[in-house]
Design a protein that fits this description.
98 residues, little secondary structure, 1 helix
Length: 98
């Protein structure tokens, strides 16, 4: 398990937590974001398991959350296509006659 960028998988090897302005050396994505936090959960309210944290609307941009803790996990690249979204869009096109 490693601490890595949510976007490209670059490994964060420095001790401690990244600062708000810290960016990935490879893809320049922000590192102190909800998507890199141990409390991030897409199925929880506001996508955060930590009830003390204020809601953050943009999960992939740097924020000032004081409860941020860099998650240790194996990097899994994101799928380019969301199957459920594609199916829903196709169904809507058929419904509207496009």
């Amino acid at each position: 398990m490693i601490r890595c960028c949510h976007h490209c998988g670059w490994e964060w090897k420095l001790p401690g937590q990244p600062g708000r302005g810290q960016r990935c050396d490879r893809c320049k994505a922000d590192l102190r974001v909800c998507l890199n936090c141990v409390s991030y959960d897409p199925h929880a309210a506001y996508q955060c398991r930590d009830r003390r944290a204020d809601p953050v609307p943009e999960k992939d941009t740097g924020n000032f959350c004081e409860y941020f803790e860099f998650a240790r996990r194996a990097f899994a690249p994101k799928q380019d296509e969301n199957v459920r979204e594609t199916a829903a869009r196709e169904q809507l096109k058929r419904l509207l006659g496009d």
